[in-house]
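tool=predict chain=A
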Amino acid sequence: MPDPVFPPVAGLGRRLLALAVDWAIASVISAGFFGFDSLATLGIFALMTWLMVGTLSATIGHVAAGLAVRTAGRGPAGPVRALVRTVLLCLVIPAVVWGGDGRGLHDVAAGTVVTRIR
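tool=predict ok
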């Protein structure tokens, strides 16, 4: 049953598309500077995600997929929530375990939701 406090959760397909776009961008940047170093790619992905979600409420992948990261009040995530969300996202396990409302545990812990904006 959807949580009545949070906006509707975006579909899994759009969220995976956004993740793939963001990871591809981080991989290209990493390859250009560090030569396909997986830890560098993860670090670039994390920094990019934290900065963009914390300031714009969406990464490049989110924008491409028509998504945004919001709070219960449908406001922007802000830097602290974005940091919690990003750290847990990079640990992978919280991102692949979902709550009953369809949000990943990284979103549940941060008090955020990925929702469609178009």
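The two ends are 23 Å apart (CA to CA). Strands lie at 67-71, 112-116.
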